[in-house]
Amino acid sequence: MSRRSRPAQVQNSHSPSLRSEIVHAAARLIAEDGFDYGLAKRKAVRQLGLPENFPLPGNAEVEVAVRDYQAIYQEDEHAERIVELRHAAIDLMHRLAPFSPYLTGSVLEGTAGRHARIDILLFPDNAKEAEIFLLDMGIPFHHGNPKSERVEAVFVIDDEDMPANLIVLAPRDERVALKGYDGRTRARAKVEAVEALCAATEATVPAI
């Protein structure tokens, strides 16, 4: 029934089976195609032939399914990709040290898909200061679209080895527990914590 409207009798918004289908379809889109959670859920609804206003599952449910999908279908590839992205994040965070960088998002959480980007929060005195710094450092970037009123700017780095979103916030927000669209507090980590996370992860990998 994918891509076709389902009969009304199977569009019950309280159906656990339909909810599960959305969750797993969204998880596949995130893991394979790099969709963000909101877009993946909406696309999954369309693929399953459900109405656009069909209730969406929470990000927490989808995140569990993403981890399961990666463990089953992408185990070795995914583990290597996470290590690569975290090391790239560490390098970038050291370069951006003047702006109190924090790693957040799927690279920190360990759910980054094949086309995921590194999300780094920056807290300069103003966005222009960070922009000038990137220009002076010779780091190519372009402007992205902020997804929150708190975000002052987003600088997008399209480097193949270091794809990143630099999310600029006001200095006062460094002390605020920021939340995602689903109301959950977004985890974030300073570079020392990311380095410790990498060290702990690599210590568990058997030598070849």
SSE blueprint:
Blueprint: H1 16-33, H2 37-47, H3 59-73, H4 75-95, E1 102-104, H5 106-109, E2 118-122, H6 127-137, E3 142-143, E4 153-157, E5 164-168, E6 188-189, H7 191-203
Parallel strand pairs: 2-5
Antiparallel strand pairs: 1-2, 1-6, 3-4, 4-5
Helix pairs in contact: 1-2, 1-3, 4-7
Task: Summarize this structure briefly.
By secondary structure, this protein is an alpha+beta fold. It has helices spanning 16-33, 37-47, 59-73, 75-95, 106-109, 127-137, 191-203, and strands spanning 102-104, 118-122, 142-143, 153-157, 164-168, 188-189. Helix content is 45%, strand content 11%.
Uncertain parts = none
Overall SS class: alpha+beta
Q: What CATH architecture of the largest domain would you give?
A: 2-Layer Sandwich
Q: CATH first level of the largest domain: which class?
A: Alpha Beta
Distance between the termini: 46 Å
Task: Note the beta-strand portion.
Answer: 5-15%
Calculate the mean pLDDT score and round it.
87
CATH fold title of the largest domain: Beta Polymerase, domain 2
Radius of gyration: 19 Å
Question: What characteristics describe this protein?
Answer:
208 residues; alpha+beta; six-stranded mixed sheet
